[in-house]
Specification:
The complex is a heterodimer of chains A (138) and B (155). By secondary structure, chain A is of the alpha/beta class. Chain A folds into 2 domains: 33 residues, no CATH class; 97 residues, 2-Layer Sandwich (Nucleotidyltransferase, domain 5). Chain A has 5 helices and 8 strands; from the N terminus they run H-H-H-E-E-E-E-E-H-E-H-E-E. Chain A is elongated. Chain B starts with a helix and ends with a strand. The chains are: A alpha/beta (138), B alpha/beta (155).
C-alpha cells in the first residue's frame, strides 16, 4: 500500500507533443486552401505576346504596370485610365521614383497605334525605362 | 520480479521535435519560393525634344523593318529587300546579323510598325532584332542596340 503511493508521486507530468506537427500542417493547409489571390487581374484577359529573348526583371520595387486588354482599355493600378491621363499619373510616379521601370502588359491582338500613344505619353512623363511584357517562347 | 520489470520498458521514438522540423521545412520553402516575376523585352525610350531634331544616319547603316496591318514585314537595307510573311520573321535576325558584321556599332535599326498592325507582330520583330548577336572578327560580341520604334499610318 505504502509503496504504491510513492510511485504515484514519481510519475512526471507530460503534455503529448506528438501531434503538434499534424496541427501545424493542418493550419498551413487550411490557410493555403482559403487564401484567395487578387482576382481582379483574372477578369482582364491579357494574352501576352511570346518572345524568345524575354528577360526577367530583377528589381521588383521599381515596377509600374500599365495593362492594356483586348478592348484597348488601359489600366494603371487597377483603375481604368484614359490615354490623356497616363502622362500625369506616370509623371507623378517618376517623380517619386526616378528608377521607375514601366512594364507594358499589352494583349497581343491590340493594334500598335494604342501602344504608340502610350509610349508617347511615357516619353512626355520622362519614364524612359520600359519593358514590353512577354512570355518566354521555347 | 526483477526480470518482469525489465520487459515492461516500451520502445518509443521521440516525437516532440516533429513540430520544429515541420516549421523548419515551412520556413525553408517560404524563403526559397520565387513568385512569378515580370518578364519582357527591355527598352530605353529616347528623350522627347520640342522640335524634332533630325539625326543624320548614312543609308548604309540603316536596316528598316516595316510591318503592315496584315502582320507582314518588309526589310530594307543596302543589299536587302525582302518581304516576309508572319511566319518568316526569323529572317530578320539573319539580315540584322549580317549587317552587324558589316557595320559594327554604327548600325541603326528602324522598326516601323503600322498603327493598325497587331502588337504581336511588333513584339515578334523586336524579339528577332534582340536575338541577333554575332562575334566580330576581333572577338567582340556585337548586338543591335540602336533600335528606333516608329509608328506609321497608311493613308
Amino acid at each position: 500500500m505504502r509503496k504504491s503511493i510513492i510511485r504515484r508521486y514519481k510519475e512526471p507530468a507530460e503534455i503529448p507533443t506528438a501531434s503538434t506537427a499534424d496541427i501545424a500542417f493542418l493550419l498551413i493547409l487550411f490557410f493555403m486552401v482559403t487564401t484567395v489571390f487578387r482576382t481582379t487581374t483574372l477578369r482582364l484577359k491579357i494574352q501576352l505576346p511570346q518572345a524568345k529573348s524575354t528577360e526577367r526583371i530583377l528589381i521588383r520595387r521599381n515596377i509600374n504596370h500599365i495593362l492594356v486588354d483586348v478592348n484597348s482599355k488601359i489600366y494603371i493600378d487597377d483603375h481604368v485610365v484614359s490615354i490623356e491621363r497616363i502622362g500625369g499619373l506616370v509623371a507623378q510616379k517618376v517623380w517619386d521614383n526616378p528608377d521607375l521601370n514601366t512594364v507594358l502588359k499589352v494583349d497581343e491582338s491590340v493594334s500598335y497605334g494604342v501602344v504608340d500613344q502610350i509610349l508617347d505619353k511615357l516619353k512626355e512623363a520622362k519614364a524612359f525605362r520600359i519593358t514590353f511584357a512577354s512570355e518566354q517562347r521555347r | 520480479m526483477a526480470l518482469r520489470k525489465k520487459k515492461r520498458i516500451k520502445p518509443s521514438i521521440p516525437t516532440a521535435s516533429m513540430g520544429d522540423v515541420a516549421f523548419l521545412i515551412l520556413i525553408f520553402f517560404l524563403t526559397s519560393t520565387i513568385f512569378t516575376r515580370d518578364r519582357g523585352l527591355k527598352m530605353l525610350l529616347p528623350e522627347r525634344t520640342e522640335e524634332q531634331e533630325k539625326v543624320k544616319v548614312k543609308p548604309e547603316n540603316i536596316v528598316t523593318v516595316a510591318i503592315n496591318p496584315a502582320g507582314e514585314a518588309k526589310i530594307k537595307a543596302v543589299g536587302f529587300d525582302l518581304i516576309l510573311g508572319p511566319a518568316e520573321f526569323s529572317e530578320i535576325k539573319r539580315v540584322v546579323e549580317e549587317k552587324l558584321l558589316e557595320r559594327d556599332t554604327l548600325l541603326v535599326i528602324s522598326l516601323r510598325t503600322s498603327k493598325d498592325a497587331p502588337y504581336r507582330s511588333m513584339v515578334e520583330a523586336l524579339d528577332q532584332i534582340k536575338l541577333s548577336r554575332v562575334t566580330s572578327a576581333d572577338g567582340r560580341e556585337l548586338r543591335a542596340t540602336k533600335i528606333s520604334l516608329i509608328p506609321t499610318s497608311e493613308e
